[in-house]
Amino acid sequence: MSEQDTNEHKGPLSGFRVLDLSSVVSGPMAAVVLADQGADVIKIEPPGWGDGIRGLGASRNGLSAIYAMINRNKRSVAINLKVAAGRDLVLSLARDADVVLQNYRPGKMARLGLDYESLRTINPNLIYASINGMGEFGPLADQKVYDYVIQGVSGLLDSHQAGAGAGDLQMVRTIIYDKVTALTAAQGITAALLARERGAGGQHVQLSMLDTALYFNWPDLMWNYSFKGQGINFSPDLADMCEVSETKDGAIISSYLGADTSGYDTAQLVQLLAENEIPVGRVNRRREVLDDPQVQASGVVMELQHPRGGTLLQPRAAVRFSDTPTPVPTPSAELGEHTVEVLAELGLSLEEMQALAHRGAIG
Q1: What's the pLDDT score for residue 203?
Q2: Helix%, strand%, coil% for the chain, nearest 5
Q3: What is the 3-state secondary structure (H, E, C) of 182-207?
Q4: Residues 272 and 350 placed together within one structural domain of the fold
Q5: Most Cβ neighbours (<10 Å): which of 48, 246, 287, 351?
Q6: How far apart are the C-alpha atoms of 150 and 146, rounded to whole Å?
Q7: pTM score of the predicted model
């Protein structure tokens, strides 16, 4: 029995099992959305080193903050997909899974015998979700892709990103399309599960970071390119209608004021503009976000105790459900922490697991 089964709140996806074969950000973050909403997510990681993101960014005692955030509420099983016996274990797990999620380049899963066509033969009701960088076809389909590449190809680095008239191309300093793709994938998976519950059966859910980026950009960043032909009334970006204004003790973000606000205290100016129905907010430095009164009032940031990382600050699941509240998060697992537990659920004995370990199939 997993820790989720003993949790008072089970969440709207309780009872669904997700096999997470993905790594880094886009796949694992999609899976954590499902895990936060109560799904039993089994994360498959390579023995020895695990998901490469375990070593990325800020850390304490070897625990990466980004890994801890997007891999909470999951069970970790260390299986070597390159060993035939390891692949067979994944096939056994896929027989009873509701969802399989992977974010490898096109063709990788087929070479391993773990693609949709292979798995649907053993589980016709399976929802199989594939995330990739540039899509299944085209001149860049096989290219290794990270978020900054998608920022460039999708038009986000256009000079207007840095402000009207700016000459330099500017990156957004967050992995925006990894995360937008993750959220889109999670929605696509739940839509497919809903269709299955209504009788549609299993299906392949496919999306690329590039397609997701263009869908995300199009309503405003691409509105000047949305009409073909003549007679177009072009418009500046929405961002040009707002401005960051310096104050005596910081800055605010608001509708364009066209006035010197440097003589005002931030709180004074925010109150004045809000009273006059002008959308406004203080500009928080990252270090100030946790102390913002509205952030504190929302209760979105919570403390989570991790056996190795100590006390962590993480946001709760963004969506709240009145009748199927989400479970209290469990911390991200150590590599292979649940290997014995999950394989025992498949009916394997300890002796069989030890033999698999000797063959390099499991960690």
Answers
A1: 98
A2: 40, 15, 45
A3: HHHHHHHHHHHHHHHHCCCCCEEEEE
A4: no
A5: 246
A6: 7
A7: 0.93
CA distance 113 to 260: 64
DSSP secondary structure string for all residues of 86-112 = HHHHHHHHHHT-SEEEE-PPTTHHHHH
List CB contacts of 239: < 8 A, sequence separation 6 or more: 160, 163
DSSP letter for each residue of 4-43 = GGG-S---TTTT-EEEE---TTHHHHHHHHHHHTT-EEEE
The residue among 90, 319, 71, 2 whose CA lies nearest residue 190 is 319
CA pair distance 148, 145, nearest whole angstrom: 8
pLDDT, position 163? 56
Q: Which DSSP helix (H) or strand (E) runs through 148?
A: helix 147-153
Q: Residue 1: what pLDDT?
A: 35
**Residue 348 within a domain:** yes
Q: What CATH number does residue 331 fall under?
A: 3.40.50.10540
- Give the residue-averaged pLDDT of 264-282: 95
Long-range contacts of 188-196 (CB under 8 A, 24+ apart): 188/129, 189/30, 189/34, 189/99, 189/101, 189/127, 189/129, 190/13, 190/34, 192/127, 192/129, 193/16, 193/98, 193/99, 193/127, 196/125, 196/127
218 with 246, same domain? no
Task: Give residue 22's pLDDT.
Answer: 98
What is the percentage of the chain residues whose pLDDT exceeds 90?
Answer: 90
Mean pLDDT across the chain, nearest whole number? 94
**Hey, what are 360's tokens?**
């390099």
| Residues 272 and 338 grouped into a single domain | no
